[in-house]
Amino acid sequence: MTEPSGRRERKKAATRQKIADTALRLFLESGYDAVGIRDVAAEADVAVTTVFAHFASKEALVFERDRDFEQRLTRAVTDRPPHEPLIPALQGEVQALVRHCTAEGSAPVRRMIEGSPALRAYEESMGLRHAQALAAALAADPRLSRSKTACLATARFAVDAYALACRSDDPEAAVDEVFRMIRAAWDVTAP
């Protein structure tokens, strides 16, 4: 996550993080469905409007690093060195993201998400949005010269690789397996 530069930006970022941390703690202690936005606001010592100024919904509180995730995926495409192949760069970033979602202490959060239809639906819609952003980055890269369909399919598979790996008993192997398929499909679509 990029560090905010000004004092005001740092205070806003600190408030956002405090709200997200408080919400996650409450959700894990009491259950996602048992905790309301008012509970989060009261515990974080902020107004309900402040919570909504930082998060569009209750579900967004659980996925507070959503923007970072999308930026990291697109930067794997846009910021890679000129001669670095796309698929290994994208796979490396997905592997790094998977390490975060499978890090020690992340299992309770994953169980909470899996146990909530609202959170699973939100995660699914978030994945589609990430795939759209990644597909746009792929399509905009003149070094790649693939159709929009190939870019969108590749992006969706990359996001799915992350989702599948986070639920897998062997996350690294899951990413490797999906990326073997992505690499084969990407190579077949070359002009």
Helix-strand blueprint:
Elements: H1 7-30, H2 37-44, H3 48-54, H4 58-62, H5 66-78, H6 86-101, H7 107-114, H8 117-140, H9 148-166, H10 171-188
Helix pairs in contact: 1-2, 5-6, 5-8, 6-9, 6-10, 8-9, 9-10
Protein structure class? mainly alpha
Helix content: over 70%
Radius of gyration, in Å, reads 18 Å
Largest sheet: none
Low-confidence stretches: none
Principal-axes geometry comes out as globular
Strand percentage: under 5%
Average of per-residue pLDDT values: 92
Oligomer: single chain
Number of helices: 10
Features:
191 residues, 0% strand, single chain, globular, mainly alpha
Report on this model:
Helices cover 74% and strands 0% of the residues. It contains ten helices and no strands. The chain has helices at residues 7-30, 37-44, 48-54, 58-62, 66-78, 86-101, 107-114, 117-140, 148-166, 171-188. Helix 1 (7-30) crosses helix 2 (37-44), helix 5 (66-78) runs parallel beside helix 8 (117-140) and helix 9 (148-166) packs antiparallel against helix 10 (171-188). The model has no long low-confidence stretch (mean pLDDT 92).
In short:
It contains 10 helices and no strands. With 191 residues, the protein is an all-alpha fold.
